[in-house]
């Protein structure tokens, strides 16, 4: 069954999307906007409670890759090119789970979501004033990727540290991050036609200022 995009856009009219590169502040902005405007908060990978159960290798092979891992060392030692391919494929496979979940929860209340739905799909199911792109310099998205102490990154650090040559594995993993956050992908976001906010690497706390800017773009003020 195929649901036409105009139908999806109608049912997603209460949903606001934030996407972009790593370390751009997406998670922070989604949480701040949810708190400030009493919106439903959907953080990164919010859909995984359903997709981890429902996804099948025949239909969603890259989502199922992680679920079927027997040794996480295989995850962190993949080639940078395979890691890049996998990341963007997972985003596309997960998009249908995201859309279904967002339709389910947004009927009575607005929703703000940290999303990996591909840009081409966002253009079909949403509009300019419901999407914001947040970007960070590659140096931040790669070099500071592990600076945050969230459970997923701590787990990956432990896996890398348990490898025979952790320094080589970390270097290999960072090359994958560099591909994911390469100029090619940065430019895809920057030239998407969506409203864009670029994080400056100047050490200043601009969270409230950026929150104001995105809230104004979304028409939440």
User: What is the name of the CATH architecture?
Assistant: 3-Layer(aba) Sandwich
Q: Note the main sheet.
A: 5 strands, parallel
The CATH class turns out to be Alpha Beta
Give the overall pLDDT as a whole number: 93
The helix/strand series, from N terminus to C terminus, equals: HEHEHHHHEHEHHHHEH
Gyration radius, in Å: 18 Å
Question: What gap, in angstroms, lies between the N and C termini?
Answer: 38 Å
Question: What would you say this structure looks like, in words?
Answer:
The mean pLDDT is 93. A five-stranded parallel sheet has the order 2-3-1-4-5, sandwiched between helices. With 221 residues, the protein is α/β, with parallel strands linked by helices. Helix content is 55%, strand content 10%. The relative contact order is 0.20. It is globular. The chain has one domain (5-211): Rossmann fold (3-Layer(aba) Sandwich), CATH 3.40.50. It is built from twelve helices and five strands. The N and C termini lie far apart (38 Å). The protein has helices spanning 5-11, 26-37, 48-54, 61-67, 73-76, 80-105, 119-125, 138-143, 151-161, 166-180, 183-190, 207-218, and strands spanning 15-20, 40-42, 111-114, 131-135, 195-198. Helix 2 packs across helix 12 and helix 6 (80-105) crosses helix 10.
